[in-house]
Structure formats: structure tokens, C-alpha cells
């Protein structure tokens, strides 16, 4: 491992500490190195706060003059909630800047590097680019497509069932698995479920204990006032997504309680999914967790809208031809076309197996 990759890896590790705190901004880390020694480091800590470069340069002080700055994302060159990072880099007297990934944000998009080079600063782009892109993937998707990063999550038995043939589903996974789910929820912008899941499980869809974010709970389909979701609008936001033939008067109780009714304008399931993701993206939601049921997850897979999968597999067998499976929808006709996860990780949680991975995009 070269010095450049070593210091960039440190910047990536720092960036990860901002997860859940900085969105819709990107997670960014920065390290200042002089004569082979780290003299300052920092990361973007919260949305609206100073960027990683500013923290690192402040920590380095006068030692930044003539030093190298390693940063996971191209320094910004525009004034947003904070001043341009390029100006801070120039003022600090940095001699060289090493960047992992260029920023596709329209107000940057190569402009930061160009500005630094025009000022005589040596710039190198692409060090540990793959690793940085992995961390930045939700941000990059939101900026380039306008849609949030979609995470599909489910728990199932060893024989691939989400419930018994009678609908009994609590609990499939153990306490350790459920603790991980709550941690994931706590960094999401929205949690999506179908009305079938609400009627079967009556979930709260909150993170317990609370995480850095409070996700909007989104229900696809009908919702009644006797559900936990309807009764806890003071604890977390609630959105109900309905088809175009829905009368707003039916959900006056939702509106009166501070919830939101979003009417998609179409009856087609795949179109409705894409319109919803566009809507959530327009609100700058970065990460969306979809917890089922099978019809909703199936529609998302059919629409090629899933980016990441988290599955909790319990060493239990329930059988039953009519017992529901995690992913319904149209599905695929050819096994050779099956969705294949990459960057998979497998770990044991109590007696459960926890598998996660991402879906490559063509």
C-alpha cells in the first residue's frame, strides 16, 4: 500500500463517522499530511456544518502550509450553507490535493479541481476511487438520478418464508437481528411498507433506541385509524400513498394529525413505485428502507429499483405451500438473469445468519 492509498483509506474511515448525520450531504473525510506525518484530520460531522476539509485544515493550522490534503470527494467551489472549500485550501497554503472521487453535484462537477489547478496546486484524482464510491453511493445516486438509495430488508426462515400459512410472523429473527434492524432504521430518511404488512404485523416502524435520523413512515395502500402507525404520528412522520381514485376526505384524520396523503396519479404498480421514489428524491431523501411485504418488494425488484439488500435468516422451518415468501411480483423467467448480489457480507447474529450486499447497475 502506497502512502497515498494509506492516507486516503484513513480519510474514508473518517468519512464513515458522518453516516446518518450529514445526509443529504455526502459523507466526506479529509487528512492533511506533511513530510509523511498526519498533522490534521476531520470529517463532515453534520448537515449544514463545516465540511471535512475545513475541520482538517483547522486541526493542522500552520502545518498545512506546503502539505498534502487527502479528501474523499472533490472540494466544493461554491457557496452553499458554508463557504467554498477550495478557498480554505488556497488560504491554508496546501501544495498538493489528492481526491478519491469527483463530485457530480452540478455546482461542482470538476470545478473544484479546476480552480485548485488554476491556482498552481498539484491535484490527483482517483486514489481509492472504488472504495470511496462504495461509501458515497447513496449520495451519488441522489445527485445523478434524483432518486434515493433503496435498501430492501426482510427476515425469513431457512425455507424462505416470511410467515406461516396462517400469517403468524412474530418473531422469525432473534433479538440480535432485530437490534441491527433498529440501527439501520435510525439512519434512514424513510421506511416503506405495504398495507398488507401493516394489517398483519401492526408495526411502529421506528428506531429503538432512536438513531441520528427520524425516518418518515410510508404506507403503500390503505391505512386505518386503529393501527400503531396512525396512533403515533406525534412520534414520527407518516405518509400514506394511495391511488388516484382516493378521496382526500377519507384521510382527513391523517391530515388533521399532521400526516400526509400522497396520491400517485396512477394505478400501475411499477409506475407508482417510480413516481414515489422520484417524489422522495425531490425531498432530498438519501436512504430509503423497504421492509415489505412480498408484493412491495417484488414490485421494487421488477422495477430494478433496489440498490442494497439486508436479509436475516433464522434456523427455522415452517413449510406450507401458501406461506408467503419475501419477493413476489412478476419475477424472472430465466435463472441466468437472476439478480446477483455483489460486495456480500455474511455474519452470525445469535442463531441467525445476516447477509447483506448490493445489486450492480448495468
UniProtKB/TrEMBL annotation:
Which transformation does this protein catalyse, written as a reaction? 2,5-diamino-6-hydroxy-4-(5-phosphoribosylamino)-pyrimidine + H2O + H(+) = 5-amino-6-(5-phospho-D-ribosylamino)uracil + NH4(+); 5-amino-6-(5-phospho-D-ribitylamino)uracil + NADP(+) = 5-amino-6-(5-phospho-D-ribosylamino)uracil + NADPH + H(+)
Q: Which Gene3D superfamilies match?
A: Cytidine Deaminase, domain 2, Dihydrofolate Reductase, subunit A
Pathway, per UniProt? Cofactor biosynthesis; riboflavin biosynthesis; 5-amino-6-(D-ribitylamino)uracil from GTP: step 2/4; Cofactor biosynthesis; riboflavin biosynthesis; 5-amino-6-(D-ribitylamino)uracil from GTP: step 3/4
Q: What positions does the entry give for Zn(2+) binding? A: 51, 76, 85
Cofactor(s) the protein needs: Zn(2+)
Q: Give me the residues that bind NADP(+), please.
A: 155, 169, 171, 197, 201, 293-299
Which ranges carry the CMP/dCMP-type deaminase domain? 2-124
User: What is stated as this protein's family in its record?
Assistant: In the N-terminal section; belongs to the cytidine and deoxycytidylate deaminase family. In the C-terminal section; belongs to the HTP reductase family.
What keywords would UniProt list here?
Hydrolase, Metal-binding, Multifunctional enzyme, NADP, Oxidoreductase, Riboflavin biosynthesis, Zinc
Q: What is this protein called?
A: Riboflavin biosynthesis protein RibD
Amino acid at each position: 500500500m502506497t502512502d497515498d492509498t494509506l492516507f486516503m483509506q484513513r480519510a474514508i474511515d473518517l468519512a464513515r463517522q458522518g453516516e446518518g448525520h450529514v445526509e443529504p450531504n455526502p459523507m466526506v473525510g479529509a487528512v492533511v499530511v506533511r513530510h509523511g506525518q498526519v498533522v490534521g484530520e476531520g470529517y463532515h460531522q453534520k448537515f449544514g456544518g463545516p465540511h471535512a476539509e475545513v475541520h482538517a485544515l483547522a486541526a493542522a493550522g500552520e502545518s498545512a502550509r506546503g502539505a498534502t490534503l487527502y479528501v474523499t470527494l472533490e472540494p466544493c467551489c461554491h457557496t452553499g450553507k458554508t463557504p467554498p472549500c477550495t478557498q480554505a485550501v488556497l488560504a491554508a497554503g496546501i501544495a498538493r490535493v489528492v481526491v478519491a472521487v469527483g463530485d457530480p453535484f452540478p455546482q461542482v462537477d470538476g470545478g473544484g479541481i479546476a480552480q485548485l489547478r488554476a491556482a498552481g496546486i498539484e491535484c490527483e484524482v482517483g486514489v481509492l476511487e472504488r472504495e470511496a464510491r462504495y461509501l458515497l453511493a447513496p449520495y451519488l445516486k441522489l445527485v445523478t438520478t434524483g432518486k434515493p438509495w433503496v435498501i430492501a430488508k426482510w427476515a425469513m426462515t431457512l425455507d424462505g418464508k416470511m410467515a406461516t400459512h396462517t400469517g403468524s410472523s412474530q418473531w422469525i429473527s432473534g433479538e440480535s437481528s432485530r437490534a441491527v434492524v433498529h440501527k439501520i432504521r435510525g439512519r434512514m430518511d424513510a421506511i416503506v411498507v405495504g398495507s398488507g404488512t401493516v394489517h398483519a404485523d401492526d408495526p411502529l416502524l421506528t428506531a429503538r433506541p432512536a438513531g441520528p435520523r427520524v425516518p418518515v413512515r410510508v404506507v403503500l395502500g390503505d391505512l386505518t385509524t386503529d393501527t400503531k402507525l396512525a396512533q403515533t404520528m406525534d412520534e414520527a412522520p407518516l405518509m400514506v400513498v394511495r391511488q388516484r381514485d382516493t378521496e382526500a376526505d377519507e384521510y382527513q384524520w391523517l391530515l388533521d394529525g399532521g400526516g400526509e396523503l400522497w396520491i400517485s396519479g396512477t394505478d400501475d404498480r411499477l409506475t407508482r413505485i417510480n413516481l414515489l421514489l422520484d417524489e422522495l428524491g425531490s425531498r432530498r431523501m438519501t436512504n430509503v428502507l423497504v421492509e415489505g411485504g412480498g408484493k412491495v418488494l417484488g414490485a421494487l425488484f421488477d422495477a430494478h429499483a433496489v440498490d442494497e439488500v439486508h436479509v436475516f435468516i433464522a434456523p427455522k422451518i415452517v413449510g406450507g405451500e401458501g406461506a408467503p415468501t419475501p419477493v413476489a411480483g412478476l419475477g424472472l423467467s430465466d435463472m441466468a438473469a437472476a439478480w446477483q448480489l455483489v460486495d456480500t457480507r455474511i455474519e452470525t447474529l445469535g442463531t441467525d445468519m445476516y447477509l447483506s450486499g448490493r445489486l450492480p447497475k448495468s
